[in-house]
Amino acid sequence: YIFYLPADTPGNMKKFVKIAHPEIAIFVKYEFWLNCLDELHKSGCKTYLISSIFRKSSIFFRWYGGVFRKCLKTFKHIFVQDENSKQLLADIDINNVSVAGDTRFDRVAAIHESSKRIPLIDRFKEGRPTFIAGSTWEPDEQLLLPVINKHPEMKFIIAPHVINNDRIKQLEEMFGDRMCRFTYCAEDPKFDYAGKQVLVIDTIGYLSSAYRYADYAYIGGGFGVGIHNTLEAATFSLPVAFGPNYRKFKEAHDLVDLGAAKSVSDAEQLAAWLDEFINDRDKYEEASQKAAKYISNNKGATDIIMKSIFG
Questions:
Q1: Cα 144 to Cα 147: distance, rounded to the nearest angstrom
Q2: What is the largest CA-CA distance in the chain?
Q3: CA-wise closest residue to 81 among 32, 31, 131, 28
Q4: Which of 104, 151, 300, 311 has the least C-beta neighbours within 10 A?
Q5: 55: nearest Cα among 30, 73, 76
Q6: Residues contacting residue 304 through CB under 8 Å, at least 6 positions apart
Q7: How confident is the model at residue 311 (pLDDT cuts 50, 70, 90)?
Q8: Residues in CB range of 300: below 8 A, 6 or more apart
Q9: What is the predicted pLDDT for the residue at 116?
């Protein structure tokens, strides 16, 4: 069954555990439902935390974080992404911990293997170099506009993070007749893409497969609360750019350190990053290969976790 958990109150969770009576519960990354964990612990349910990552600044390591430290002790085992997280937990006497990595690497690798062809994008692309921007917000699109204007020879695919009439209208005002909407094109198999430089994916379920058509990727969110999923692009061997707010994302740091990703603060920096790859194909190929290798080298967390929990 797939459903939302009830609000995390003692009464709700007591009823929920009584009805569902789970034997095993798995929480992912930052999901710390204090009352739920407490009730599961009382019931004898085995609880696990997977793909978690901890930083010294986290509440667990502050003087006032006692209730959160207590919740960590309810887990039968904690699978973390890196050695630093394991050491931080050891410092507060949490030792039922092992380094397994991040299951998202296995997920995006599976997405790559099962990605579907999208004939509509084939027709839009027309064999031309293609730049994809995933999960964008308005500041990201303002950043992209000068780059799109600078490269009329290139095709651009934009997948906004929020899809509603107001957002699509903003994009139509920004790009004018150069833009076409995925849903409108899908309704007309004979749609004429002549003069269309920007394809906006205004529906869900296509972005992860659309990355396969691109040569370069930009990931949105870096001018807000934080960047979105960079791994979905990297698994297709794409060099990735994103805004400045990526500090909390280990994979973004890793990709930057490898030279497979770049943080940009304005349109000029984004244009310079793109032009460097256009003008130096060896550098592009090197970044592309590093992105793909990063995914490949970090696969395997799912198997480690499943074998540990289920034998």
A1: 5
A2: 65
A3: 28
A4: 311
A5: 30
A6: 79, 98, 100, 101
A7: confident
A8: 101, 105, 106
A9: 92
Report d(CA 83, CA 100) in Å as an integer. 10
Query: Strands across the sheet with 155-160, in order?
Result: 179-181, 198-200, 155-160, 130-136, 216-219, 240-242, 261-263
The Cβ of residue 77 has, within 10 Å, a number of other Cβ atoms equal to: 16
**DSSP H helices in 44-103:** 66-72, 83-91
Q: 50 forms bridges with which residues in the sheet? A: 28
What angle do helix axes 138-150 and 165-175 make, rounded to 10 degrees? 20
Task: pLDDT band for 155, please (50, 70, 90 cuts).
Answer: very high
Share of the chain above pLDDT 90, in %: 98
Given a contact cutoff of 8 angstroms between Cβ atoms, the answer to whether 67 and 260 are in contact is no
pLDDT of residue 186: 95
Q: Both tokens of residue 103?
A: 């299951």
